[in-house]
Model the fold of this input.
Amino acid sequence: MARSVLVTGGNRGIGLAIAQAFAALGDQVAVTHRGSAVPDGLLGIRCDVTDPAAIEAAYDEAEAAHGPVEILVANAGITRDGLLLRMSDDDWQAVIDTNLTGTFRLVRRASKGMLRLRRGRIVLISSVVGLTGSAGQVNYAASKAGLVGLARSVARELGSRSITANVVAPGFVETDMTAALPDTRRDEILSQIPLRRYATPAEVAGVVTWLASDAAAYVTGAVIPVDGGLGMGH
Done:
């Protein structure tokens, strides 16, 4: 039976791979974006996750088309890197507002429908950086670490209603962003990864769809790294 799925930031990169993986399973998938084109087979919804009214409107549109959202994948995120002493308040706040506060609002809205259904799957896309830290990314790392506490609190609050909340923490993934890195930086990163390669977006998507499957019905409050061993021990 087709499920109603919402993937934020689902028009490119990891988010698109996740959305397409759910669509391939026969689910009805809505993806939020900020103005980019959306591939056929997905319902594109323009949404700024820092705007509470836009989030409400996005849910209304997704639910009108596909019914109550049963699976939320909160993937939308931004970076504004800079060293601590040079990082502006604006650069800190913009990343926190999008990556952490935006996700809080998405989860809060999703939980309303899931509580009525007495079932649901919430998957938050964090990062290995949220576990290990990263020089020049105090804002991003803090926002991604915050998702762990958010998911685990939600798991405790909503578990009695058969709603699970989990975190997937990708490492370096083959995307347009990583492809643009200088060769020296790519080699430096690869030398730290035990598997000596980047992940594919499909490998991240596979873990997300598993968490939303019947096989993972007893998994909640978990943080699953998909990082080639880069962050092991954290």
About this structure: The chain has a mean pLDDT of 95. The radius of gyration is 17 Å. Residues 89-117 form the longest helix (29 residues). DSSP finds eight helices and seven strands in the chain.
